[in-house]
Write a structure and sequence with these properties.
There is one protein chain. By secondary structure, the protein is mainly alpha-helical. It has helices at about 1-25, 60-65.
Length: about 70
């Protein structure tokens, strides 16, 4: 009988553990002392402009219909 209960209850036990850890993180842990880095402090500037990848060239001679076919 226990062989059927344990596998069936495993997802619920894992859900309870995740929810308990989330509650513990929100209510027990102290808030961070330093605020998260704001984007106004260090604006992101790309080193080089983004370029789309170059598409592979297709040889049109190999795709043209053959005269004998």
């Amino acid at each position: 009988m226990y062989a059927l209960i344990v596998p069936a209850s495993t997802p619920f036990v894992l859900l309870i553990v995740v929810m308990a850890l989330s509650w513990w993180e929100d209510h027990i842990l102290p808030p961070p002392t330093e605020p998260a880095e704001s984007p106004s402090e260090a604006p992101l500037t790309p080193a080089a402009p983004a370029q789309p990848p170059e598409l592979a060239r297709v040889d049109t001679a190999s795709t043209a219909p053959a005269a004998g076919h």
